[in-house]
Write a structure and sequence with these properties.
The chain has about 160 residues and is of the alpha/beta class. It is about 35% helix and about 10% strand. Helix 3 links the parallel strand 2 and strand 3. The N terminus is likely disordered.
Length: about 160
Amino acid sequence: RFLQRNSAAFFLLAGWRGLRQPDKFAPQHGKRNHFGPVSPEIRTASGKPDLAVVSRVAELRRLIGQWKSEGLSIALVPTMGALHRGHTSLIEIAARAADATVVSIFVNPKQFGPNEDLISYPRDLNRDLETLKMSQARLVFAPTPADIYPDVFAT
């Protein structure tokens, strides 16, 4: 159900081209894979890049701009945190579909109505980051509401 409700946005952002053709799960550029050379970064003993975490939009744009300038395709898996197997499954699909996978963790206060309890929504960023360290995610975007809705925000 999660995939059905969110797949349109995910696949659009991921540049998805093989929804019904599993043989097209490979990265679009073929020569790079999720663990391939992207940007200078610290690597763990396994060779997997460390997970980068940013909260500012400017830093996110800088990193994605750098990846785009290198010709990489980028997948976004948007979440509200409280990560579970469904999320990690989407991350696995994204990693097969793109060169770099970004996971956003943002509990959007605008998604909650007046009678819905935003305060009690589960949040445990440290647990989510531990889950993501074991995944193929390259970057986590974990902004605060102030980062997304600055004082000068207007629609």
